[in-house]
Design a protein that fits this description.
alpha/beta, Alpha-Beta Plaits, eight-stranded mixed β-sheet, 13 strands, about 20% strand
Length: about 400
């Protein structure tokens, strides 16, 4: 597998009027629920995706490295051609940017999850039953009003995101370090303390401050029926990344529902498009409205991942079918390149992200068709693209769109 080197693409990138669409079904890859069965994607009725597979080239993308299960942030960075091992981005940064919270140099951001714990402090639901967003708004206001690190010279901002998710930003001089998360990622265990892995005085002080705030917050939430605790993940600062415009000369737009994916798009210089609704057809309607203004369009479908994490095989199948139904509307815009993929696999059988490579297809006038006739995990194994690293997706698309000059004499 080849990891993308941006330097050569900066030298060769050129502008034209060709459009690239990257359609990402979050957690797309799956597994059969029983031996010799079909995956969610293989089960779904997808005549339009199958047509793209017949007319295009298929393969399987590795988000990080073989055998490594990625989080959503690293997996999306990989899709945008950034090696996630080199560019480690805390999920808190992505969530904060996604809700429009502008981070400064003294800001440390964390993604928060409301959770349910039993009387012994063991986690029984890592997502507090996916409480409605209105409940999240009330709870974040409660935390904002009743927690403080002012005596330590640190401001705390607590903001709602969606459902059980929220953002907390700690603002003050000298915050930093390499901080661990509190979520053990399984039920039946108590939350973990925040630890610093950097070994620096700055990191040790910051870990202690974050733990102090968490202790306050859990006391404030203790009387809540479902969201009686919380966990923090991805505690980090904004590292600053080069933008797609600077690397590939692409005016890039993001059409996403969930704030975290808006955040990772902003991080690499995309314009986030506002629109009404949360279904694939609403996203394609937004795509039509901004088609003339941009060169590259990132469309993010979240519910394929959510249903996978819930273990809801049938619902994930239906969501894939809903995406298939809008493919003709995308093709009607005459993109030069259409890529369909996922950021990672989330098999309903496992109820979690997994390391399995992600089925991926490229379609466009300059894409050479291969022998694949359907879009699915096993069919993609026989595609012309083979097994490749996800950081190659945008470079391949640039080539198919004639947006790279010839290299050498």
């Amino acid at each position: 597998m080849i990891l993308t080197d941006h330097t050569i693409y900066q030298e060769l990138a050129q502008k034209n009027d060709h459009k690239i669409v990257l359609l990402v079904m979050d957690g797309l890859g799956g597994l059969p629920m029983r031996p010799n069965g079909l995956t969610e994607l293989e089960t779904a009725y997808t005549p339009n995706l199958d047509r793209l597979a017949r007319e295009g080239s298929s393969g399987r993308a590795v988000p990080v490295r073989p055998g490594i299960t990625p989080g959503s942030g690293p997996a999306h960075l990989s899709l945008f051609s950034f090696d996630p091992v080199r560019y480690e981005i805390g999920r808190g940064v992505l969530e904060a940017l996604g809700i429009g919270f502008e981070l400064g140099p003294d800001d440390l951001a964390a993604r928060g999850n409301f959770a349910t714990v039993d009387e012994d402090g063991r986690i029984v639901d890592r997502r507090a039953g996916r409480i409605p967003t209105e409940e999240c708004v009330r709870l974040t206001q409660k935390l904002q009003e009743h927690t403080s690190l002012a005596q330590e010279g640190v401001q705390v901002f607590v903001r709602p995101v969606k459902e059980h998710r929220f953002v907390v930003v700690f603002r003050g001089p000298g915050l930093g370090g390499e901080l661990t998360e509190t979520d053990p990622l399984v039920t039946g265990k108590p939350p973990l303390p925040v630890r610093d892995l950097s070994g620096t005085p700055e990191g040790a002080r910051t870990a202690a401050l974050v733990n102090q705030w968490i202790e306050q917050a859990r006391r404030v939430l203790a009387d809540e029926p479902r969201a009686n605790s919380l966990n923090l993940r991805g505690i980090a600062k904004d590292p600053g990344l080069p933008h797609l415009q600077d690397i590939y000369q692409l005016r890039a737009a993001a059409i996403a529902v969930y704030p975290m994916y808006k955040g990772v798009a902003k991080l690499v210089g995309m314009t986030v498009i506002d629109f009404e609704g949360d279904r694939p057809q609403h996203q394609v309607a937004a795509l039509k409205k901004v088609w003339d203004a941009y060169d590259f369009f990132f469309i993010h479908i979240k519910k394929t991942d959510s249903y996978g994490e819930d273990g809801n095989f049938e619902a994930k199948v239906h969501e894939i079918e809903a995406v298939d139904a809008v493919i003709p509307d995308i093709l009607a815009l005459n993109p030069s390149v259409l890529i369909v993929t996922g950021d990672h696999s989330t098999p309903a059988r496992l109820r979690s992200h997994s390391y399995h490579p992600v089925p991926t297809l490229f379609w466009g006038p300059q894409v050479m068709p291969d022998s694949v006739t359907t879009f699915g995990e096993r069919a993609s194994e026989g595609g012309a693209l083979g097994l490749f690293h996800a950081t190659e997706i945008i470079p391949w698309a640039m080539g198919y769109a004639d947006r790279l000059k010839r290299f050498g004499a």
